[in-house]
Amino acid sequence: MTTYDWIVVGGGVAGSALAYELVKLGSSVLLLEQFAAPKNGTRYSYGGIAYWSGNTPLAQQLCQEGIEIHRQLSDELEGDTQFRELDLVLVIEPGEDVGAIAQSYRSCWIPPQPISVEFACELEPLLNPAALGGALHTTHGHVSPEATTLAYQQAFRRLGGEMRLAQVTGFVREGDRTTGITTPTGTLSATGVIVSAGGWSRILLRQAGLSVRIYFSQAELIETPPNTPTQTHTLIMPAALKRFEQEAAAGAADARWNQPNQEVVPPILDEGVIQFKDGRIRIGQVTRMISSLEPEVDAAASESALRQAVGRFLPSLKEVPGTWSRCPVAFSGDRLPLVGPVPGAEGMHLFSGFSNPFAIMPPLARRYARHLVEQPDPLLEGLSPGRFGT
């Protein structure tokens, strides 16, 4: 039986990027994905590269490295990631304190700048000026999440990597050491196993009896068909994002995650819109924190809330034909991913929990592969899954 150097569990953009970087360094790598038609956070991502948003020295360094990688990644992978840079308009509702909101971004590497309502509507003619109390502006990177993942996977295979469709049902353990994984059709062996399964990461680790502070939200959104005739010109997001505060609160309520089907913290709605090169528009998002991967949700009510909220700012999108969907999204609770060995499980690693994935994941995939194969990288110490203690 073949023993791989690494088995990477999860074929989303994070797992695919890390598998590519490992095989590029000469490792034998098996990449596993459980769904032929992915249902993960990559599939429903906005694909935004918020490289401007790094607000600590570590985040700023990774964001700088990330945007430089994206600018040449299509050439490196020999596959079009559909990279571009476009205007980001952060909308502010009437009555909100524009100055205070702008000040909250001052620690960013490239702080968004206040602009007039009139200029915001010049940048995005679909905006309703009556719904705006102000706006901020910066330049934002963007890729197609699906195209980027496919480009990583194709480059991975060209270098000799192997990819299979298989569900991981468990881990092979010899004492505290992980030596492989089990699937419905058999056992696969490896020197090391890396869990990069997004929203499924917590469930896999819990089934193995491992307690790691990684969580998952349910992101709910509407996607229009390709070639939607309505044309946006910018990426639209709320300036006062609620999601990061929600993630922090959910991470602080760790005990509730171990109870079945619990609402850990109340849901939030952050209105956002992005149109892809093929004309699809993704409208989101409602974010729920429930301790079940498939909670019962009133899809019609969720879709109505999304349409009402986005319709205030962009009236032409209120009734645009589209399909409501949801997916689990991994996060850690402190806005930093979990990258490193899993405590108490020698040979098992975690590469998941990216709250700002496309900005910082590519450089971390590159750094972590080198860390595992060539030499330790001190920058990764602060991202260890053990940083929260027990």
Automatic annotation (TrEMBL):
It holds the Pfam family DAO. GO terms for cellular component: cytoplasm. Residues 5-369 form the FAD dependent oxidoreductase domain. Keywords: Oxidoreductase. One of its GO terms (molecular function) is oxidoreductase activity. The keyword Oxidoreductase applies. Gene3D superfamilies: D-Amino Acid Oxidase, subunit A, domain 2, FAD/NAD(P)-binding domain. PANTHER family: FAD-DEPENDENT OXIDOREDUCTASE DOMAIN-CONTAINING PROTEIN 1, SARCOSINE DEHYDROGENASE-RELATED. This is FAD-binding oxidoreductase.
